[in-house]
Structures are given as structure tokens and as C-alpha cells.
């Protein structure tokens, strides 16, 4: 199956890239720069992952997104730094999600990727969603993937669907899948911030570090 992969450089998208390469032909990996703090590090990680697999990589700039959001991912303010023990508290997770929400981000990403996919003759857009974050982020859910695919039946004349190989997995299970696939996890950037090293404090770091520790990686 030919596919276009949404590649943020994070754990989920990296493992999805590895799976998509094994599953068929990845014709393009797309990374989006919407003014997020971690843009440079995400682009570097995505480029390294794409190069590892010999996949063409392209960065798409979306400056309008940073202009219409006050998310901590862009401003650097109020970035969630939960205790590991609180990561799975549903009420708290939902409240934290609101602090890093970007208006229609995944919807925009999927539709742009679908346009590339239709142009390149690819049958799927591959996105790195997961079961943990779907509990707080509706645009990570299986229902969202199904709805997006249904919409693309019309906007791409039924030629493109959305696929997420990690949709039903926890972060630990994604790390384990990545290990089985031989994904170079040392290239991943899973931090909301864009420093020289991952901060280890933000929620994205906490989920990643918890997962690799539990998987004994």
C-alpha cells in the first residue's frame, strides 16, 4: 500500500513510519511547522527518521495556526507538567489537553496530507494516534479516524483513507512495537519544548519516559 505519513518526529509517528515502510511504500513523510516551540527539534527528528528509511521528507509551514491559538505549545506558557502518577487521571488529563489544544490541528494536517496522497497516487494517510491520548484528545480517537476517512471519500473521490497503526495501543505497547520493528527510537523527539535535550518534565516527556521504562528500553 502506498502511503503518506504524518511525521512529527515523536514516538507514535516514528513507529507508524516504521510500520508503514514494512507494510508497503511510503511516498512522502510530512512534518508541519505551525510555530510550535519544538518545531526545529521535531523537524530535525523527522528528517533523521525519514533519512533512516530512505523516505522523501517535506516540511509544510502553517503560520496562520500560531496566530489563532494561545496554546502552551506555541506560547510556552502553562505547559502541563503532571506527576507520572497523575497521567491517567481522566479529569486532569482532559483539563491538561485544553492547555495544549490547537484549533483543528489534526483535521488540517490530515486534509493537507490527503491532498498530497491523492496527487502522488497513495491510498492512505498514516497518522500516529494512540489509546492513551485519545481519552483526552478527541482528534486522536478511532471515531475521529473513521469520520476523517468518511469525509475523504468525498473530498478525494474515495481514493484516500486514514490509517493509524498505533490507534489501539498504549505508549508502552507502542514502544514495544517500535522495538520489534527496529525503529531507531534514539532519533525520536517527544517533548513539548524545543531545547537541546528533552525537558523530562512536560506531559509528552513523562508519557514517553514512563513507556520506555516500563518496556525496559
Automatic annotation (TrEMBL):
Q: Does Signal show up as a keyword for this record?
A: no
Q: Which Pfam families match?
A: QueC
Annotated Zn(2+) binding lies at: 191, 199, 202, 205
State its cofactor. Zn(2+)
Ribosomal protein keyword on record: no
> Quick one: which residues bind ATP?
7-17
Q: SUPFAM superfamilies given for it?
A: Adenine nucleotide alpha hydrolases-like
Q: Name one GO molecular function term.
A: ATP binding
- Which CDD domains does the UniProt record give? QueC-like (cd01995)
- Cofactor detail note: Binds 1 zinc ion per subunit.
The UniProt entry's GO biological process terms, in alphabetical order, are: tRNA queuosine(34) biosynthetic process
What pathway does the UniProt record associate with this protein?
A: Purine metabolism; 7-cyano-7-deazaguanine biosynthesis
Q: Gene3D superfamilies of this UniProt entry?
A: HUPs
Sorted keywords for this record are: ATP-binding, Ligase, Metal-binding, Nucleotide-binding, Queuosine biosynthesis, Zinc
Q: Which reaction does it catalyse?
A: 7-carboxy-7-carbaguanine + NH4(+) + 2 ATP = 7-cyano-7-carbaguanine + 2 AMP + 2 diphosphate + 2 H(+)
Catalytic activity, EC: 6.3.4.20
Query: Assembly and partners?
Result: Homodimer.
Record's function text: Catalyzes the ATP-dependent conversion of 7-carboxy-7-deazaguanine (CDG) to 7-cyano-7-deazaguanine (preQ(0)).
> What NCBIfam families does this protein's entry cite?
7-cyano-7-deazaguanine synthase QueC
Under the heading PANTHER family, the entry gives: 7-CYANO-7-DEAZAGUANINE SYNTHASE (PTHR42914:SF1)
Q: Which family does it belong to?
A: Belongs to the QueC family.
Query: Which protein, by its recorded name, is this?
Result: 7-cyano-7-deazaguanine synthase
- Organism in which the protein naturally occurs: Thermodesulfitimonas autotrophica
Q: What is the lineage of its organism?
A: Bacteria, Bacillati, Bacillota, Clostridia, Thermoanaerobacterales
| Gene that encodes the chain | queC
Amino acid at each position: 500500500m502506498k502511503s503518506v505519513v504524518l511525521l512529527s518526529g515523536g514516538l507514535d509517528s516514528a513507529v507508524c513510519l516504521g510500520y508503514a515502510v514494512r507494510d508497503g511504500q511510503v511516498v512522502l513523510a510530512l512534518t508541519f511547522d505551525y510555530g510550535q516551540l519544538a518545531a526545529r527539534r521535531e523537524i530535525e527528528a523527522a528528517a533523521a527518521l525519514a533519512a533512516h528509511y530512505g523516505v522523501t521528507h517535506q516540511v509544510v509551514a502553517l503560520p496562520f495556526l500560531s496566530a489563532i491559538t494561545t496554546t502552551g505549545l506555541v506560547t510556552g506558557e502553562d505547559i502541563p507538567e503532571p506527576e507520572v502518577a497523575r497521567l491517567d487521571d481522566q479529569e486532569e488529563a482532559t483539563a491538561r489537553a485544553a492547555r495544549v489544544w490547537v484549533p483543528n490541528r489534526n483535521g488540517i494536517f490530515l486534509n493537507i496530507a490527503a491532498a498530497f496522497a491523492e496527487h502522488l497516487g497513495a491510498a492512505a494517510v498514516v497518522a500516529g494516534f494512540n489509546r492513551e491520548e485519545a481519552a483526552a484528545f478527541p482528534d486522536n480517537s478511532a471515531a475521529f479516524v473513521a469520520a476523517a476517512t468518511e469525509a475523504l471519500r468525498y473530498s478525494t473521490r474515495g481514493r484516500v483513507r486514514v490509517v493509524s497503526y498505533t490507534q489501539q495501543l498504549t505508549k508502552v505497547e507502542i514502544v514495544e512495537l517500535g522495538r520489534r520493528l527496529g525503529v531507531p527510537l534514539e532519533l525520536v523527539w517527544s517533548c513539548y519544548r524545543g531545547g537541546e535535550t528533552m525537558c523530562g518534565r512536560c506531559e509528552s516527556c513523562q508519557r514517553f519516559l514512563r513507556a520506555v521504562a516500563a518496556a525496559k528500553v
